[in-house]
Design goal:
By secondary structure, the protein is α+β, with helices and mostly antiparallel strands. It has helices spanning 5-45, 54-65, 71-89, 96-114, 126-145, 154-165, 169-188, 190-215, 227-236, 265-278, and strands at residues 217-223, 243-248, 255-263, 283-289. The protein is 63% helix and 10% strand. α3 packs parallel to α6, α6 (154-165) packs antiparallel against α7 and α7 (169-188) packs antiparallel against α8 (190-215).
């Protein structure tokens, strides 16, 4: 047994390093995501009192009534309560990254409040604030959701709807946050409430489309006389696998082989250029795949 310890130990260290890099990348993307959400709140939504759903919307409403309570502080308190619900219903796998994102978002907003960033509002036009604030927030939230995490708050309720009723996360948020906009109407008037509702609707679509874009891949099928060279290029240069199907030409009646692979967009661009160089008469079909699960792509079951 001792003779095999060295090689296996080396493999263990290699996979351990890979796992650490994966975790670092996940948390880096989560950090970038919640910082975008914080900026959208501080520069667009909070100064214009656009309570676009969620815990942040509730915090904006409460802050307008009791200015002594910072938006970040209010969000933190409400998130703690909702996380308890999330742990009970979804389980602890939802927790670690989401707690980080939630605390990070609340902390970022609290720090920005200390520097009174909201006084540097970029626009007082409600339409511009709603659109640009929501686009920025939606992109940030999508980045967080795509790492199997949440910015906390009503996102947790949206995750619960997504788990049990298989609703898109964006549409789940739309249902949950609609109630908050009703309270915004009572607090700030009908005009601001309608802008808040517009922001909620846009936010849902932005999240779904950004997540779809982040996970999209190209399904590629190739018929070529150079399949061996193409297959070697896919494995060695693109670090991907492929499958060979056996078919028969309908026109020629000859047996043929079809190479099938799934690649990220940038990898497909490289492959297309390579195929053009070695076999300009190759036949290629490309399909858009909105999500790919399994080895080399996203895990089938997200982990913390």
């Amino acid at each position: 047994m001792g003779a095999f310890k060295g090689p296996f130990l080396g493999l263990e260290k290699m996979f351990s390093r890979g796992n650490h890099m994966k975790k670092f990348k996940e948390y880096l993307l989560i950090t970038m995501g919640f910082l975008l959400v914080a900026l959208s709140l501080e520069l667009f939504l909070v100064p214009n009192k656009i309570a676009a759903g969620g815990v942040s919307g509730i915090a904006i409403i409460i802050n307008s009534i009791f200015p002594v309570f910072d938006v970040g502080f209010l969000m933190l308190g409400m998130n703690i309560i909702l996380f308890i619900i999330g742990f009970l219903v979804i389980g602890n796998k939802f927790g670690a990254k989401s707690i980080y994102a939630s605390l990070g978002l609340s902390g970022a907003i609290w720090i920005m409040d200390r520097f009174e960033l909201y006084n540097r509002v970029l626009t007082k036009d409600l339409l511009l604030a709603s659109v640009f604030g929501t686009l920025l927030s939606g992109i940030g939230m999508a980045m967080v959701f795509n790492q199997n995490a949440s910015t906390g708050g009503t996102d947790i309720l949206a995750k619960i709807l997504n788990k049990f009723f298989h609703l898109d996360i964006g549409k789940s948020l739309l249902a949950v946050d609609f109630v908050v906009t009703l309270f915004a109407g009572v607090s700030f008037g009908a005009d601001i409430a309608m802008y808040a509702l517009l922001a909620v609707i846009v936010n849902g679509f932005v999240i779904d489309n950004v997540i779809e874009g982040l996970n999209s891949c190209k399904e590629v099928m190739i018929i070529s006389s150079k399949l061996e060279e193409i297959g070697n290029y896919i494995i060695k240069e693109l670090d991907r696998g492929y499958t060979i199907f056996h078919g028969k030409g309908g026109f020629t009646g000859k047996n043929t082989k079809i190479l099938y692979t799934v690649l990220y967009r940038r990898q497909f661009i490289k492959l297309k250029k390579f195929i053009k160089e070695i076999d300009s008469k190759a036949f290629i079909t490309i399909s858009e795949s909105h999500e790919v699960l399994g080895e080399g792509f996203k895990d089938i079951v997200g982990d913390e």
